[in-house]
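Obj.: predict assembly geometry.
Materials: sequence records (below).
Method: joint structure prediction, all chains together.
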Amino acid sequence: MSARRVVTGSGRVGRFCLAAVLVTAACDTAGAAQAPDDAAEAFRSGEYAQAISAYRSLVRSDAAPPGHHIGLVRALMAVGRYEDAEDAARDGVGRHGAELQGTLGRALDRQGKTHAAEAAFTAAIEGGATDANVARLDRALLDFRRGRHDEAMAEFDAFIDLYNDGLARSSEDLTAVATAVRHLGADDPDLFRDALRAYDEAVAADPWNHEARILTGELFLEKYNGPDAGAAFRDVLTVNPSHPDALVGLARLLRFDGESGVREALEQALQVNPGHVPGRVFLASLHLSAERYDQAQEEAERALEVNPASLEARSVLAAAHYLSGDTPRFEDVRRETFELNPRYAELLNTVADLAVDQRRYAQAVELAREAVSMDPQSWRGLGILGINLLRLGRVDESREALEKAFAGDPFNVWYKNTLDLLDTYDRYVTVETEHFAIFMRDDEADLLEPYATSVAEEAYARLVERYGYEPPTPVRLELYPSHADFSVRTAGLAGIGILGVSFGSVLAMDSPSARGIGEFNWGSTLWHELAHAFHLGMTEHRVPRWFSEGLAVREQRLARVGWGHQPDVAFLRAYDEGRLHPVSTLNDGFVRPSYPQQVVFSYYQASLVFEMIEAESGFEAVLAMLRGYRDGRQTEALVAEVLGMSMDALDERFDAFMQQRFGETLSAVRPRDLGPDPSRERLERHLADDPTDFTAHMILARLLVGEGAPEAAIPHLEAARELFPALGAPDGPSWQLGNIREELGDLDRAADEFRQAALRNEGHYAAGLEEARLRRELGDLDGAVEALDRAILVHPYEIEVHEDLAGMLAETGQWERAVRERKAVVALDPTDRAAALYQLARAHHMAGHTDEARRQVLEALEVAPSYDEALELLLEIRAGAGPRGKS
Amino acid sequence: MRRLALAAALLLVSVPVHAQQTHLLVVVGLGGDDAYRERFHGWASRLVDAATGRYGVPADNVRYLGEKPELDPERIADRSTRDNIEAAVRDVARRAGPADGVIIVLIGHGTARGEEARFNLPGPDMAPAEFVPLLDDISAQKVAFVNTASASGAFLEPLAAPDRTVITATGTAREQNETVFGGYFVEAFDGEDADLDKNGRVSILEAFQYASQEVERYYEDEGLLMTEHARLVDDWQGIGEPEAITEGAEVRVARSFFLTGQAGTGATTAAVTPELAALYQRRDSLETRVRELRAVEESLEPDEYERRLEDLLVEMGLVSRQIRELEGRP
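Observations (raw structure tokens):
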């Protein structure tokens, strides 16, 4: 396969130069204090009220040039006073004729007065206005938005001649050229580079041309280039921190990067310009992502009040109706929008994209297909189609769509990364079980298969029993040994911070080799993702995120002691300090976290909600809610109907539940003022007065261990454990007590402590190994086997662990399980391959698998023909003798 | 004819059984600090002990030159200066017979400037070129030269020669970080896991394969980038990476070169009676046939290959059983 390359913009050098130009220009203008310059400066720096006032006073003069009217109109539009802007423009037209027509057209266009705008642009062009080229572009854009693509593209194309003939010299003209060329890029992606260059030239011609910079940022963002987009937006915001377009651009960028501050930037933009249609549209899409359909609809309608012709606002309104299940209204909006622009496939793409946020992948595929059939050059539609076909497990169709999308949009990193990932799929194998198709890379398939199969089928059976539902099978489970590959599979870009994802009956997750030891328990993660497959399937993908995540964690916690998220000091303090969402807004904790840890806290918190509901109303209540979501009901209505309470009452009920469950622990972990680095004496005195301070006990224990008095630390660690028995931290009291007791020779209790540490933290590999070692030493083989079984679900890559486990299983006559461990040893490519194969053959023989035993012993002897034990085993098998002896 | 044939067979078997002797020279270079000094001495001591103990190499055939003989006068014969090394190699060359094997193991640090590498010693260091005439003087049947130091890759090509296997811890002179290969190479002989073909002996090849794989595992487990890539050149057959040495690869010298006081199983002290010798020969012949069969595996139907393999191995099992009975092993 030929190398695939993402085309990158050539704007770096240009951008560098621009900064220099900007500084120079700033120096040049310093000291200029005339009133027109004051107005311009106020406008440039975002002092819009001042700019409006200054321009108003300037236009009072009969001698005011057209530029003052233009400045006034722009300032009014910047704050959303479009009608005033229109009036001012009309006044300007009265005084300056064609020179103001283009500006009038733009004021009209912002209000959706399309025909009037078109007439104004035409008047500007025909009147030979200074900004005739810009008016020409604006008219072409109008055509484009109305579906007259051929006419619009012909006009855009003319801008190339304009540029090549040297007729586009002003910064505004160059910006128009860039925007025209950008639209032509849909047919010829190389033109995106030219667009960037022209934007750069526009900025070079006028460093104060904020519009050109913002359009550059938007183009970068559209091509998934966050850093350059950010640079462009921030360049503007440095000069004008109130620029609504730049603030909205920044907000979109922050969301793209998954960073905080989205709302703040957006709110600031809307504060400056409450009628900012792109801002309202973006806000509506944020509401949709957070499953707040009513608010999304409200925002979209507010945008349409400003500009009823806004296709973007109509699209997001259509999405709000679609996702809330209001099909008739969705169809209405869709029909009306297509009346405005019969070729506007972007509506379908927008709805599809937002449907993806709600995990409705099949619907996204349908919508994208329709978009592509409307507009075969809808690269975005093809991309959405390809990405979501992959999420449905339809790999070949996905590749076909993505190849087309990437050919049309070679800047798109997501398509490129995903296609590169698909190129690696020939190194993967698929193992089919009763309910699963497990997709693993060939070099770890032999190792993982038995464990993945076992956990997956166990989880499937348990969840079917619990939910009384079977998701579509086979469930496709993809295990990626590279987190970057998993990340691309999930989000198109490397670096996402999750372990697994469920697209319904397609699950993708990190394989255990993708992470460091102890970073996660892959059996537990698999269980979690499979639970999602049930929730999504049962509700036809309508379950809210908080509900599904909380319930999935709940399933983990029910599957094995210690699995799933566990409480820690930070969680309880966050609750105690009111930094957790109430249940009624818990979804925001997932989709709009206000601090980094909030997502993790929300997982555990949501699982507690289900613990409470199940305890108080039974699991049937949860099932009833899932059925309700399937029928398009919303949480509030379901809580009222199923739980018989309002959301406020649910919030209160949960609060009471938390107090009941963690009451004493909450006060135990509450911070006390002990000062920095308290001494042992200080801690001892403090604990004499306040023996319920968890943290003080832990610090004192650490000091005592450090001072060589581990025995003295024991009572403090025991006290800490009693104060916070459920603590899931890896270095909690149990782990420390285990180490101390072992050091003191109290192996029995040490083993128990290590067990407790392992059972409170699903990723505690070391605790599992320590417990196993001690149990074995104590002759408790069953206990040791159990501990190692747990450890392997954290990290299955240590040969010695499998060998130990196999040995103990053999000692206890559990040959079937010993076979599994011996297979793992072979799969891990041991140095002594002959011995590993022989041991596997022997385990098979002892388990009564004669054919497998024969096959494996022959393989061992191929490596080592004079291997006495293996030869004996072969003779034994050939003689048809049963297993000799137990071990 | 029957008797003559038997005698010839016996002769074939008995020459390696009784005549081959292994001579081992272990050289530990400059440690630099106590931690390294201790580590290197530990490796060397284990190798010397395994040779004289487990493998029955006569003490007279084992010589250990170290940085500080006073550290362990019982084991360390002399200081590891260049002069002493040259003298020790010449001594081995003089004493080793044409059927004997000579193993020289260097443990310590190496350095390099460009491609010019040296093994660090108390006093003047030694470059590959300085070992060439010394090794060329050895007329033994097989020579193994093992440099476990950093930058040892530079020793490979200059020292490659017929009937000689050269092993280095690193692939090039540029790999100058400390190495762990030496420890695993020693472990191959004093541990239990390096007899990969289960014939009761650890060949130089097996030690190399074992150490290479364990080095790789070490770096993987520690989460470190591998900074040493062991190499082997055998009988002037070209430089081989561990993964290139497959079952079918020749590797003649290293494959049949054992650390042993005498040939045979290396694990028995039973007298080699004619009956036992015949069984050894039968077993060797069957082993050869298994190898030959494997070489043509691709040309056979899987069932046919498996059937023939199983027949050979069953016969081998029966022969091995008889050998063990005669050797008095369980």
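Conclusions so far: Residues 442-467 of chain A form the longest helix (26 residues).
To do: check interface contacts against the pulldown list.
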